[in-house]
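U., I forgot to send this yesterday:
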Amino acid sequence: MHQSTDTRTLDLPALCAAERLFIWGFRAKARSGTAVPTAADVREVYDHFRVGDAVPSLEAIIEIFACTAHTAVEVHCPTCPKMSESEHGILHAIAAAQEERIDVAREQFESWLPPVCADWALAPVRGLATIFRMAGLILPDRHVRAPGVMQTMAMKSWFVGSPTLH
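Result:
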């Protein structure tokens, strides 16, 4: 049986440590072209929390999004206290994978990825979720609003410098 869902909008400071760690790492790796934090910083912090082995899975997930997303994923900078709907959705998918609810994770990823790519993402998602769980970093199952129809139907045509990254 899984935990009850929470429909409140939560910003980064209100999240548990496991959620903040995942989101910080996801943001940092997604924005790897910036100077801080570096890939070594992410590895060092993840190692400190005994989840350093999750970094390749995190990188694979980001690579799948970067190469195959049909819809923009809004990712904030690592220090931003606000969470985007996209970040909430990704967090929801990882939490579902921790509870072996892979169908929920896959459905969430289909908000941004073609079905075959959502399938590709499942292996690294499961790996990351398992590593976090084994380290005692449990991600609570928080309900996330489903994106609107227009958002899921958007073409991959966003501009460089768009509000998807800030």
